[in-house]
Amino acid sequence: MKILVCLRNHILAEGVKGIIRGNLDGAILSDYYSGSAINDPALVLFDSRDVIDELMQKYPEARFVCFDLGLKSNDLACLLYCHGISGVISTKLDIDMFCKALRTVHEGDIWLEQDHLKILIREGRSLPNKDGIKSMSKQDKQIVRLVAAGMKNKDIADCLFLSLPTVKAHLSRIYKTLNIENRAQLVALAAESGWLPADTHPNPSDQSL
After folding, report:
1. Any idea what DSSP says for residue 29?
2. Can you tell me the distance from the alpha carbon of 140 to that of 167, in angstroms, rounded to the nearest whole number?
3. Is the CB of residue 36 less than 8 Å from the CB of residue 30?
């Protein structure tokens, strides 16, 4: 079992590696932040939502386990729903259960504790709908692109030869479809989904609708 430890706290990382070495026979360990990362880990143990996109891009075949050091509920839910990680481990687990969690994920199953399962159910109801981006009409996509470019509703209306009320109606419907509330969330969701073109510089300056 090849495990890549991606924990920002060096002392914690060394402790986790020591536990794994002493309790998981045959485990091959590497450390992301020490420069010794292996190329093909089976498991990646990480502690921050900030690094998940980078890690998934580098290790597309790995299974990802979040070490929960106090992440917000919506961050954990997003990791589970949007990024499809394979498990969340809390600091309250004893050594035996910690090792069992790693084995469970390595064997292809999901590991969630009761508290994390509750978060998954509760927060999942209010997460943005990423799939809605893909099903938008051509005109809706144009509006999102212009919003991301920082254009105000009146400028968008002039650009697309639409009335201002029509643009506002489009945005209201887009927000409802994507389960979001404002322009900033719209731009963030489109960018996170990899939908915006590379030369787009998000600047949702107009906060109305």
Report:
1. E
2. 9
3. yes
